[in-house]
Amino acid sequence: MINGSAFKRVVVCFFVFYFSIGVSQQEPSAVLSEYLRYKSITGNEKPAGLYLKSVCEQFGFYTTVFTDADSSYNFCASLVPLNRGLPSVLLMNHIDVVPVDEQGIWQQKPFDGIINNDTIYGRGSIDMKGLAVMQIFALKQIKETIKTDSIKYNIVILFLSGEETGGKNGAAKMIQPEILSQLKPMVVFGEGGGGLTHVIPGKENELCFFVSNAEKKSLWLKLEAKVKSRGHSSVSSSKTADRILLKSIEKIDQAEEHIVIDKSAEETFKEIGSIMGGVKGFIVKHINWWLFKPLRRKIVRDNEAIKTLVTNSYQLTQIQNPKGPINQVAQSATAFYDCRLLPNKSEKPYILKLLFRIIDRRIKITIEDESPTSEPTALDSNYDKMKRAIVGEFPTAHVIPVLFPATTDNSYFRSVGVPSYGILPFRLSEEMLESVHANNEKLPLSAISSGIKVYIRLLQSYNP
Ligand SMILES: [Zn+2]
């Protein structure tokens, strides 16, 4: 008969054996839990980066530090040293996280790395510390199973700073020739869409993985009206800076949508239409046919998700006046816009031309900031490899290429012509999706192991 402690030992041995041939949840979740404890809010990445670098070195990876400042700590871990000069498959993540809302309600504290009910809680668990850990453990498995003397491609994981504030302290530095020539990326896999259900009308249960191959370009504009008007407000006037600005804001709101269905949007609609099936599916699949042109504007208007894929957006974020007493008419008024543009070179001139045409001539437009201009990545054999890796792990899943509505570090690599894809290789529930950049960010442990397995399949396909 087996006693209690012997039974426990057998169980432990079984788990050790089982997980050594499969993918363990324990070790990755312990690393992630520790990593989440570093409060690496943008500008303070280095301590968290140093921790991950030490993990990578423990696993026998080769590490290279590119920039070493507290707010710009960027390094990579690779299967073989960079100076072997092999082209690389680059897995990318960012060390920084967004701040937490101090009043927000969290089931577990955001920087304690608590694991409860098979779920790990913490700021960055999805975006994107969890992904970094998946990449590390996938590379660990690859390192343990392949001979590195005859490989065709290096596998490189790039850990970056400053993504959440636009990538200037991270990815922007990595595309400089002296660093890019060391990294030699043949393809980049960074963050993007995940595995979602309830996204295809009429086919709510279908699991769809959205791999981003393009990103919208952010363009932040300042619109400033400076008008000399009577300073005292006892006599009313319609020609004040505020009135002029508000009228122009109204005109921008009323501007007709500019719909562009490019090749990459066509691919998205083709996939979605095939899943939908029926007449509606047929129309979506062939949305660019001249025959359906009259329907296009209605379809776009009725569906927010589709609208995001084929139009530019202009979000008014702030209106400001210089401080003054209520009885003094402000002599200047400023509005800020966060514009998100479709990824082709012609959109920025298009927007600026449109604004110059419709707004008051007395308003000065200044570009405050913008992300790099990058064309969509054409779906190539790297996309097929990622698709096969996802379907290998989730056999019933659909894989759909998509334009990502925000900008990530992927855009920097696309801007220098490196094919770049964005994907979170696990199922994302509605609740998880809502927790990104919000309260209660969390990642089920099962997502960590499925993510690792997708990455292993992907990496194995490069050095079979
Ligand atoms: Zn992110």
Describe it.
The chain has 464 residues and is of the alpha/beta class. It folds into 2 domains: 23-204 and 374-462, 3-Layer(aba) Sandwich (Aminopeptidase); 215-370, 2-Layer Sandwich (Alpha-Beta Plaits). Helices cover 38% and strands 23% of the residues. It is built from 16 helices and 15 strands. The strands form 3 sheets. Strands 1, 2, 3, 6, 7, 8, 13 and 14 form an 8-stranded mixed sheet that branches. Strand 4 (115-116) and strand 5 (119-121) form a beta hairpin. Helix 8 runs antiparallel to helix 9 (278-285) and helix 13 (381-393) packs across helix 16 (445-462). The longest helix has 18 residues, at 4-21. It is globular. The two termini are 47 Å apart. The relative contact order is 0.17. Zinc ion binds at residues 94, 127-128, 163, 191.
CATH-assigned homologous superfamily of the largest domain: Zn peptidases
User: What do the pLDDT scores average to?
Assistant: 90
The CATH architecture category of the largest domain equals 3-Layer(aba) Sandwich
Proportion of residues in extended strands: 15-25%
Measured distance between first and last alpha carbons: 47 Å
**Which ligands accompany this protein?**
zinc ion
Give the class-level CATH name of the largest domain: Alpha Beta
Number of strands: 15
CATH topology (fold) name of the largest domain: Aminopeptidase
Q: Looking at the structure, what is the overall shape?
A: globular
Give unreliable regions as ranges: 1-21
- Please describe the biggest sheet, giving its number of strands, its sense, and whether it closes into a barrel: 8 strands, mixed
How many domain modules?
2
- Rg, nearest Å: 25 Å
Counting DSSP H or I runs of 4 or more residues, the number of helices is 16
